[in-house]
Amino acid sequence: MKTPRPKTGGRQKGIGAGYPPNKSLPMEERIRTFWTRVNKLSDSECWNWTHPADKETGYGRLGLNTKLISAHRFSWLIHFGDIPEGMCVCHHCDNRICVNPKHLFLGTIADNNADMKRKGRMSKAPRNNKISPEDVVQIRKMWIPFKMSVRKISKILNLNYKSCETAVSRKHWQNIPWTTV
């Protein structure tokens, strides 16, 4: 006798009962579901999302109109209305699972990056693929096959690995002669 397999996907038991699974829930139902997943404390404290957060971003997520939306963006929608095109919903509290509307503010991507930098949360990730001719000369001076690897150079100079790899490739940066190295 076969053991029945557990149901994967779909709605949780009791959520949206009576609604077809391929249709989005009415907004009132979605708001009710939202509040069942929030640990609402005092107005000054973080209201944490209690449902699992996205593994990559760390933000709470829920479905809206057959798409996933971040929980803090949904909180903004139900408290303040639409989010203008190209705007981010940022946190004053730096708590990704916080949905307290008093802890949220609208800003551009530049505003969000400036806020992260001001608070010391900007990652120290390698720079973008854009490197200067001076970088190319320095990379070529440091590169010694089988002794100083491109990977090690990219970490030392805090540059993108692929950029460093193109600097030592004879196909790229041909305007910088190897003889100057």
Tally the helices. 6
By CATH, the topology of the largest domain is Homing Intron 3 (I-Ppo) Encoded Endonuclease, Chain A
Spatial order of strands in the largest sheet: 1-2
CATH architecture of the largest domain: Alpha-Beta Complex
Mean pLDDT: 80
State Rg.
24 Å
How is the main sheet built? 2 strands, antiparallel
Compute the separation of the termini in Å: 74 Å
Low-confidence stretches: none
**How many domains?**
2
Order of helices and strands: HEEEEHEEHHHH
Percent in strands: 5-15%
The helix fraction, in percent, is: 25-40%
- Based on helices, strands and strand pairing, what is the structural class? alpha+beta
Could you say which overall geometry the principal axes of the C-alpha atoms support?
elongated
Can you characterise this structure?
The structure is a single chain. This protein has 181 residues and is α+β, with helices and mostly antiparallel strands. It has two domains: 27-118, Homing Intron 3 (I-Ppo) Encoded Endonuclease, Chain A (Alpha-Beta Complex), CATH 3.90.75.20; 133-180. It is 31% helix and 11% strand. The chain has helices spanning 27-36, 71-80, 109-118, 133-142, 150-157, 161-168; strands at 38-39, 48-49, 61-64, 67-70, 88-91, 104-107. The strands form three sheets. Strands 1-2 form a two-stranded antiparallel sheet. The chain has a two-stranded antiparallel ribbon with strand order 3-4. It has a two-stranded antiparallel ribbon with strand order 5-6. It is elongated, with a radius of gyration of 24 Å. The mean pLDDT is 80.
